[in-house]
Amino acid sequence: MRAVAVVIPAHDEEALIGLCLASVTRAVAYAREREPGLVATVVVVLDACADSTPAQTRRWPVETVEIVARSVGTARRIGVAHALATLDARPEDTWIAMTDADTVVPRDWITHQLDQMDAGIDLLLGTVRPVFADLSARHAAYWRATHHRGRPPGNVHGANLGIRASVYAAAGGIPDLVEHEDVALVRATRALGARERASDVHEVETSGRFTGRTPAGYAAFLERVHVWIDVPSLAAPGA
User: Fold this and answer.
1) What class is the 3-129+151-206 domain?
2) pTM
3) Alpha carbon of 210 to those of 159, 206, 218, 228: distances in Å?
4) pLDDT tens, residue by residue, 84-101
């Protein structure tokens, strides 16, 4: 028997959490159709939420954990620990799939990761694309021109990151960081010599907002690119 644990940190995501959980629920159902014996759990970690995110989350077939850490690293770490404690499978047969509450995953998001697990991969770096409707036309065109299907760059995104549970444990797990917790985990995993692969087959779609929930997350990256592309005077030296 093998298992998959989906972990999603959430802080005040009432506008987007429903779309996220709808897509994750569909991906879990699709994986179970293909593999009836698959054990799966979805854990949403509600971190210091002051809006309706908790109420909306509980409408879905997921586990919830409430914390007040205001730290995405802590939220992911607690979520993984909670998920693994509920699964009755060996760590080497358990896959951890991470995403974010402002992200929509494709139907084959889990099945593709399990295929990589079957191929001996321990760490999977998935690609992320922004919601183009949230961007300017120039920004969206730039993204399309610089991202080519079949050539994943191997960037680290907590919104699309998968890892074998035994390797996760050996790497020390996700550290309690308010940002770049995903990068720290990947660095520790690489130090172990784990088998790694980058893939855009299971690419996810993340909000194109410029104000995110972490200081240096995907939203901050999009804002920097936007300033550089659409407001060149602000990006110029000395501006």
Assistant:
1) alpha beta
2) 0.88
3) 16, 11, 8, 13
4) 999 989 999 999 999 999
